[in-house]
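Regression test case RT-17, inverse folding.

Input:
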């Protein structure tokens, strides 16, 4: 199984996760910029985080044979914190960098005016930089939040096929399917979507414009949920080609709109002895 995880926060995962993901077939991923689990206190905190996403984390993934890309944005949660607002002025510099394949995660968290302002401004940045957009949907009051999200996307003038609306479920998939936007599903171990519910959605709506991700981060999550979904699809009678569409071709088609995906396999001489600014992933390795 060839897997491209279109939403996973590797910064908070271990080298063991990278090894298990590679063994499961993961060869490429997108890491969206998000919050840290606790508030950032200054714009400098974003700068170091963004630099890590395009630098160290990309290098680290490469040591395990996985192509790392990222999306850059002011996330919905921190859009409410005036200490973070200035980061919007820094985004253009990052959106131009290699490996940055979209603007995201943007959207609503608690549906505030500050969130809407940051969301609108970042949709305009995506149009300006000719990049696709990853939109997060709120976990509470999901249907109303998703409908309002789609209105803001429509008002921005961005083409719907350049937008993925993520964290969908049975309640919200229909309105997004009708909008022409791509549909993203985060498969979690014990809450929200699981792989069986995902299979049922794929049966009803087909595989077109469908993205499945693990959204694994520092919370209870599982970086192998993409593989688990592929296996559940096969068990339910989907063909290998349908699994490949959902787990590989679709994310490649969506993030390929950036013109910045790097998917060629690593030459075999690249390995864990390599360094990034003098640091390697080795710790006390035997000589
Ligand atoms: Zn996320």
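Golden output:
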């Amino acid at each position: 199984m060839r897997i491209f995880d279109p939403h996973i926060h590797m910064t908070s995962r271990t080298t063991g996760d990278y090894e298990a993901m590679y063994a499961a077939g993961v060869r490429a991923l997108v890491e969206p910029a998000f919050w840290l689990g606790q508030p950032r206190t200054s714009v400098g905190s974003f700068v170091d985080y963004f630099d890590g996403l395009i630098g160290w984390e990309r290098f680290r993934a490469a040591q395990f044979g996985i192509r790392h890309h990222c999306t850059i944005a002011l996330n919905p949660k921190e859009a409410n914190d005036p200490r973070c607002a200035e980061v919007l002025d820094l985004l253009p510099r990052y959106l131009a960098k290699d490996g940055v394949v979209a603007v995201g995660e943007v959207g609503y968290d608690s549906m505030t005016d500050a969130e809407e302002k940051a969301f609108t401004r970042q949709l305009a940045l995506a149009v300006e930089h000719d990049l696709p957009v990853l939109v997060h949907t709120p976990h509470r009051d999901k249907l109303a939040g998703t409908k309002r999200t789609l209105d803001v996307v429509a008002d921005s003038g961005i083409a719907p096929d350049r937008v993925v609306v993520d964290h969908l479920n049975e309640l919200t998939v229909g309105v997004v399917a009708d909008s022409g936007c791509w549909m993203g599903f985060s498969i979690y171990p014990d809450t929200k979507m699981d792989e069986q519910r995902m299979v049922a959605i794929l049966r009803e709506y087909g595989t077109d414009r469908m993205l499945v991700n693990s959204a694994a981060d520092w919370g209870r999550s599982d970086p192998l949920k993409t593989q688990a979904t592929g296996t559940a699809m096969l068990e339910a009678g989907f063909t290998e080609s349908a699994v490949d569409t959902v787990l590989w071709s679709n994310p490649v088609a969506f993030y390929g709109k950036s013109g910045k995906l790097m998917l060629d396999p690593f030459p075999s001489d690249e390995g864990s002895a390599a360094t990034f600014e003098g640091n390697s992933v080795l710790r006390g390795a035997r000589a």
